[in-house]
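Hey L., structure's done. Input below.
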Amino acid sequence: MAQAVTKSGRAVRLPAWRTVAYEIALNGWRILRETVNDFSLWRLIEYPWATRALELQPGDLVLDLGSGTSSYPHMLAKEGVDVIVLELDADRVRWQLAKRRATARRGDGRFFPLVASATAMPIRDASVQRVAAVSSLEHIPDDEAVGRELARVLAPGGLAALTLPFTSKGRTDFFKGIRKFIPAGPNAFVQEGKAGSFFRFYTEADLHRVYVAPGALKMSRLEGFGRSILNGRYHETRLTRYWRRFVLKDLVLALLVHPLEERFDRSDPLYVMFTLRK
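Output:
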């Protein structure tokens, strides 16, 4: 385990180009041709936003919920941030630990892999100052339990950065004509024949009910991504076959198309990004 970094007063930032550089360092040059760990367009938007939104400095501790095989906690550690990787799947936690052992370097933040559910975290009340949940909580059926746990573990003044799928009125389908998703509840779906594929969309009222109300948390304004161009003409179309290929095209989309789409397109975003403060 690398030696902890003391706080320096330097703000931690992960611009999109740096996330690509870290992904190459962690998983090799092959990711430029075909990505692994779902490192794709959305991650190039989410990782920079979450890092900035958490107001991080080297030496801070982040609880990363539903890490899976994401490289994000490793990127934070490379920036001197201590990270608790909380993931229910033991195989994925073993993957995270093996990746840490293979890529750790002197000066990295500390890294704590933890097999646990976000619905019942083995963490003391009011003990965590920073929580990240990047495209993860929508896959947990008992999201109300997650909302209660998030309110419980956040310390006074603590900050959580969440990204979640969004709908303003309700969705009756997902990836229609590309993959077969079956309704599993209001705005919720499972992919036919794929275990563990639960996926939920949230209205703004849902976000307040599930994640704000349990702890009377203060919610920031919603920021979005994936509107009529990046989602409607790319992601939820047959062009999605290129989703995990040629990362540099996604870097261009994230840096050029995403800001323009957010400025001029008023259609529903596929995802929203927001913070919660206790």
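The first strand starts at residue 61 and ends at 65. The chain has a mean pLDDT of 94.

-- N.
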